[in-house]
Each structure stands twice: as structure tokens, then as C-alpha cells.
Amino acid sequence: MFKFGHHGHGHHGHGHGHGHGHVQPVVSARILFASYGGLDITQKVQHMFNTHHNVHIGPAEYVRHFGDPAPGEFKDFVVLAVDGTNKCFCHIAADNQPTNISMGAQNSSPRTAPAHGSEILAANYGGVDVTAQCRDMFNHKGGLHFEKSMNDMFGDTLPGVEKVLAVVFKTTKGPTPHRAGTYWSEAEKPNLTRDGHQARGMPGHHHHHQHQHCPQPTPVFHHPMPHHQPVHHPRGMPGHHHHHQAPPPTTGPRVLFASYGGSDVTHHVQGMYNSHRGKLSIAGGQYVTHFSDPFPGQLKDFVVMTVDNGNNSQVHVAAENSPTHIDGSAAQHSTPHHGPPPHASEIIQANYGGADVTAKCKELFNRRHGLRFDRSMNDTFGDPLPGVSKRLAIIYMTKSGNIPHRACAHYGESDKPHIPHQH
Question: Cα–Cα distances in Å, from 236 out to 173, 179, 377?
């Protein structure tokens, strides 16, 4: 028997083995993580899988489904999942390749991305976001080079399942910027070198068969260059990350986190903010134009967490029809909360001072039937930004009237959040 995971949209099996003394083991085929060019689309792909019992996307249809997070760049579609045999696998498809994922036994895609890059965009280990840890190692050690096992690094996120680490990264040594995906099983030793640093030995995950369609000795890209049109990169356009662009700043005014209805748009917003010298301006009603519509028919808040020139963190929240104006050169104030106190049916996303704390907040919310803290935020999450007054942003599911609303509540580090469970 197959039974879908606890993501809220699934069709749960009943009757077979329930209440009859002998219970058959339940295999939970499920989507753990999904990304398109670094844009987190996990919930949308989970919904597709749970609704249709498969994920079927034709070549060149990814932008239609998920929007284009980085126009003019090649983007991999990456899915981390558990199949019907309780085995974790990673599916990777280029823009011009199809995707077919079913509930049966699945194998991971061949790994063809280069073993070097300029930036970690996303990382997930067995369903848990480990982007911050991988990005920190990549930036400070010149690449992803693990000295401990993955379970020691990240914890055992799926006991009893052989897990996979999926990484989405930006590579710059090619004719076109490429937001590539790769992966390693938990027994492997990742080797992804940061551009400008010498690789440690030969990359362990490049198989000789990847060159069968491209015999030249240059690095092989997951995407062939399109023949029908050249790719141009307009100068100064927001969201177009050229291969010489520096990573986001780690001091001074900066964007720590951004979300549109629970869809992570941090990298896109950082590009807009940095290209406009610390300013971000989006007119009301224009969020779908910039970020596509991750959840049609639902109300979505646009959320940006920043640090201003006074080294204080703020959270800016705008409804879909409200504008956003942020100027990092001036002192900023967080958006005040309007309306009734928050009640939630689900925690969608959570970020504390730039660190993803979704898993911890979901665990607290589900275990306590609401989000309540007994300890300080630094004790609960650690201190991701020493010396900075931090904030916690929670994106949660509620209702405005009869319409689902992906709303945001935020709190200072000395506050005591309380978000009751909405039944």
C-alpha cells in the first residue's frame, strides 16, 4: 500500500490493514524538496504529486509552471523524493528535458553538472533545508568538502532511509550562467569547489559516460546551448545575475530573506536590491510579474527581512495589492501587524536572522498545537547574527474570510511568539 506524506494535499489510504490486527508496513512515497533554478517550489510540486500521483512536465514547460526566477540563465529542475520502496532519490532535468516521476521505484538522474561553482543557491538533506550550513562551508572552506559524515553534519533527518543531499549551485565557467543541480548519497563525500580555489583531487561524481554526447574536453553542462536564439544579458536589469556578480554582502545594509506566499525568493530579491544599490521598490499588484504566482487563488504576503545601516534587522510585509519600498541607506522600521492576532493551520516557512528555522518551528507547532516558545529565540535557534538585533518571520496558512491566506507574522528576538492552531 502507498500512503502519501503529511503535506496536507495528499489522498490518504484507508481500510487496508487498519483495525484488522495485522498492519502492513506503510511506504510513504513523497516529495521532500523541489527547486527550479534555486527557487523553492517544494509545496507546488508536492501538490502536483499528491493530486496526480505523479509529476509529469514536458520539455520547456517549467517556466509555465513555476515562473522564471532568473531570465537569460540555464536552470535545472531538481526534485528530492522518497519512492515507493522507501528509497531516497534525486531527479534533475534541464530546461529542455522532460520530468516523469511516479510512485514506483525510482533511480536518481545521472550527474552531469561541473564540479565547481560560484555560489550555493539551495541545499537539502533528506527533506531538511541545510542551505545555510552548506553555504557557510562553501564560502569559508573554498568548496563543499565534508570531513564528517552527512548524518554527523546535519543530523539523521530520515531514520531508516538512505538519504541524499541535493545541492543547487551557480556555475560561472561556461558561455552562459547555469543554476545547476547535483547530489550525493549519504555515504559519498561531496566535492564541489568554489571558483578561484584549487579542486581537491578529481571530482568523485563525474562519470565518463556524461561525455558521450559532447566529446570535447571542456566542462560538460547539463544544458546544450539553444540553437534558435542567442542568449543576451541586459545590463542592470534586476534579477539578471551576470557571471561576474559578487555574492550578497555579509555586512552593512542587506537582504537576509525574502518570501512570496511561502515561496523562497531570497536570491531574486537580493539581486534586485543589490543592483539598485540597496533599494527595493515594487508597486502593488506587481509581485506576480516579478516572482510568478506560486499558489493561484490564494492570498499571499510578500515578506523581506533586511539589515539596515544601523545594524538592526527589520521585516517588511506587504499584501499583494500594497507596494514595497525599502531604502537600506536610511534607518528602517518593521511593518506593524494589523488585524486580529494570527491563528494558523500550518507553518509554511520560518526564518530567524537569515537562518532557515522552518523545521524547528513546524515541529514546535505540530507538537504543541500552536507555536509557543519556552526559551529565548537565541536559545531555541542559536545566534545566526551576533551583534545584530534579529527578528523571526513566520509565514503561515490561515484564512481571510473563506480565502486561504499565506500570511506573515514577525517578532523581535525578545518577544514571545504565540500562534494558536487554527482548527
Answer: 21, 19, 38
